[in-house]
Amino acid sequence: MPRVRGSIDIARPVEAVFDTVADQTNEPAYNRAMVRCEKVVPGPVGEGSRFRALMRTAGREVPMTCELVDYARPHHLGVLTCVDGTMIDGTMDFVPSPVGTRMSWDWDVRTLGWLRLIGPLVAWLGRRQERRIWGALKQRLELREGSPTGS
Whole-angstrom Cα distance, residue 85 to residue 44? Predict the structure, then answer.
């Protein structure tokens, strides 16, 4: 099973980073592959919140669902995502760092059907995609507040 792990430092308070990431309706603003995202259960964002999104990948649009299966604001999220024959189960952690927040992710990627044959490629693409998405989040959050962008 491919695994995708990483971390990034963001010059913003832990609560600000956590809240932006937990409410996945924010993601189209920093993930250029996400066409749109909507919350599909009523109430505030928290454990059990589900989101439906449309992703653009390989020249086509594919639906994606995501559920927050663990929610411990402002330090921990457990997330289950299903998209195009792939289930992604993992966690995100948010801890104070010298620059503001260190955000880390740890995903188990379960590919179904023929995608199992290309597991190593899926892991490589996943690592690359996560670096791009979270780098764009970092840039957006730091620029919004006028903070320096280095890290």
Answer: 29
Q: Give the pTM.
A: 0.85
Mean pLDDT of 135-144: 91
- Topology at the third CATH level for domain 3-144: Alpha-D-Glucose-1,6-Bisphosphate; Chain A, domain 4 (3.30.530)
What is the tens place of the pLDDT at every residue in 34-47? Answer: 999 999 999 999 99
